[in-house]
Amino acid sequence: MDKAKASKLKVGITVIVSIIIVLYGIAFLKGFKFGVVTNDLVAYFGDVNGLKVGDQVSVSGVPKGKVKEVELEGDSVRISFTLARDVILKKDCSISIEMQELMSGKQLAIKPGRSSELADITKPLRGSTSMDIISLIGTMNQVGEDVKDISAKLNKTTDDLNTVIMNVNDIVGDEGFKSNIKGSASNFNVASKNLDLLLEENRHNLSVLTSKLNSLADNLENTVTDTKPDLKETITNVRSLTIKLDSLTDNFNQLVSNTKDTNSTIGKLLTDDEFYVNLNNTVVNIDKLIKQIKKEGLKLKIF
């Protein structure tokens, strides 16, 4: 082999080796691992927060896969990714989007969970977005806006309070108002003194009135005590009278019942028509006899 062909062969080998080294370096930097068997999984997020295709999938901080697709589906984002088969996900596993390092790229972070039941990786997983520096800055901006609103409200409240204080100072500083307060205080002092004098002058009368009220209460108590036996006797008599009235009422009711009964003597007398006819004839005959005696006189024949 001549020297020209040997040089070309060396150059070719060097180029191939260089390409292999570059590809290996890219694969190393990207985290590619040859001969690793993976599963394809799907997860849904409300916001990917900067995650993109090719980003790392880590399990408890260890790289175990890559993000394959990031697609928008309705109001959610569908993320397809690969995961090494040696990773066993449990039913309580969690998946979220986190920063790899401060101000660096994003990654899909998975925590396998500790449940005794395995997760069904054939179904989509539901993920969450964790707080990062960008979200924190956004939150701080929102807090800043809220602080501005609170500060504006406090300024307005302070202005209103200053206005109130100025109005109070104007009222308190008014000479007429001061004079009225002094007059009211003076009148109150005079009224207090007059009340003290009135109480002092009528203290004896109040004592006498209190004594009479006490005496009246004692007399009333004695009267009640003295008349208590008479009250008891009166109550007893009232009860006895009530019992007699009840008995009289029962007898009267019995009489009324006998009157209504046609089989009793009184009922027959009151309901028998023949009795009334005979009674009327007797009255008529007596009337005739009286008229005859008045006219002719009474003639008696003893024997």
Annotate the secondary structure layout.
Layout: H1 3-30, E1 38-45, E2 56-59, E3 62-73, E4 76-84, E5 94-99, E6 106-111, E7 125-126, E8 128-129, H2 133-173, H3 175-201, H4 203-226, H5 228-260, H6 265-271, H7 273-296
Parallel strand pairs: 1-7, 2-6, 5-8
Antiparallel strand pairs: 1-4, 2-3, 3-4, 5-6
Descriptive labels:
alpha/beta; 8 strands; eight-stranded mixed sheet; 303 residues; 61% helix
Could you describe the 3D structure shown?
This protein is of the alpha/beta class and 303 residues long. Among the domains are: 1-30; 36-130, no CATH class; 131-201. It is built from 7 helices and 8 strands; from the N terminus they run H-E-E-E-E-E-E-E-E-H-H-H-H-H-H. It has helices at 3-30, 133-173, 175-201, 203-226, 228-260, 265-271, 273-296, and strands at residues 38-45, 56-59, 62-73, 76-84, 94-99, 106-111, 125-126, 128-129. An 8-stranded mixed beta sheet has the order 7-1-4-3-2-6-5-8, with no helix packed on it. Strand 2 (56-59) and strand 3 form a beta hairpin. The model has no long low-confidence stretch (mean pLDDT 77).
Report strand %: 15-25%
Query: What average pLDDT do the residues reach?
Result: 77
Shape: elongated
Q: Count of DSSP helices?
A: 7
The whole-angstrom Rg is 62 Å
Quick structural gist:
With 303 residues, this protein is α/β, with parallel strands linked by helices.
